[in-house]
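Issue 218. Parser rejects a valid record. Input:
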Amino acid sequence: MIVGKYWLAAACVVFGIFSVSQALASPWAEVGDSQLRSDIEILSAAGVIDGITTHWPLPWASILERLRDRSILGEPDFVRDAADRVQHVAQAQMHFGDVRFQASVDGTNDPSLVRGFDGLGRETAITQLSGEYIGATTAVRLSLGAELHDHTGRTAFVPDDSYIAQKIGGAVIYGGYLTHWWGPGWISALSLSNNARPMPQIGIARSETSAFASPWLSWIGPWQMEFFVGWLDDSRIATNTLYNALRVTFNPLPGLEIGLARTEEFCGDGHPCKPLAYYFEFANDNSHVNHTNDEGVIDVKYSSVLSGSPYEIYMQLMNEDSSPITHSGTSHLFGASLWVPVGRNPLRLTAEYTDSVPTLDVFSFGDVLHGFAYNNGGYPDGMRYRGRTIGFSLDSDSTLLTLQGAWQDADDWDYTVSFHHAAVSNPNNTIGNVVTTAPVHINMGEVRLSVPFRSVNVTLAGRLQDDQPRPERGFQASIEAALTFAL
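Output the parser choked on:
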């Protein structure tokens, strides 16, 4: 039965190849392309474009406007090459008046435990067909697909990344299944990432990131703001729970980017539904318990160029409670990246540490609140969607240390090597973790190669790990192949 479903997925892709005619377009730089993100970070560190790089998807309009306005003739070769690659991707995606199509398939014997910015498949197999149209002020994408769940043998309908977006003045109003990545991390984002499938949502965001013209607010520098409301339409104890997310990102000084975000679960079966009244209900203690489940986030990134090498250092804090001084329940993320010149394209080296064992206060590392992250007494399903955490891929009470190197050669072949040391859950976490049924320490190495062949992009990944999330045990080897067709 499962083999038959694999053949069905393959047949859908073959049909898609012969029915498509052009490459998929997009009005945004979307989550998933780590080389594109690396090039954007290089340009930002060099001061060629603004510093709004942690709020994905990124509007193409601002990136292209900065590249047109800023001369790069005096920049090093690797900066000019990064600009050329970014412009090439943007021009390929910003085709107005055309209908574009794409087909993709991903298969693995075991999906990756860690899901970063460039995450591949969430399940054993997934196939998808997409078509998109971009007009002067309107963009529409329809994606239809199916994924196979290995543990159940069932298939599920996947409309991920379908949307309709309408530009009105300086804003874009959208609806659909948009994937977000909010934060400076390459491996993890604490509150909102691509770990879980995108939920159905409606939202509004700025269409570009220019600074205020007013002298009273111009000090903020380039900025972005986005707000959306989603529906958690999966199987939950509190059915029909709603979700909202707000993020403001600004660039007040060269190289300095600050992000502020709030995410919230509200309404749902068994809960009063007064969203406007409860949205501003910040106090949460034993004498006044919130009617919602919310998270507050602040992240800071600084980037620059030192001795010809771009670099960035960053941190992200996620508070589960109201006061950062007296009772915050704070998870932490720290990281740094360095781009080392290798030919005309630098090698990116990243070290990142994520810790979802919340501290009582922001930096009270000796006093922790086990099981506090992503869990909530009023919403037993927590900040999760379709079995996955909406933020950090290892869920509550976990730590992850990652060392990663990534490089693209002159033929656009991408090479990525990653080492992950994970402590998934904790013996003191009595509330639970959706990744494992019992605490486990896992070391995992991954090697990934992405190769473009004209209208086909092939990504191959191999992973080795010395243990597995419970109830499985022992050494695990996995391989994964992902193909994207654009003809």
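Fixed in the parser; the record now loads. The first helix runs from residue 2 to 19.
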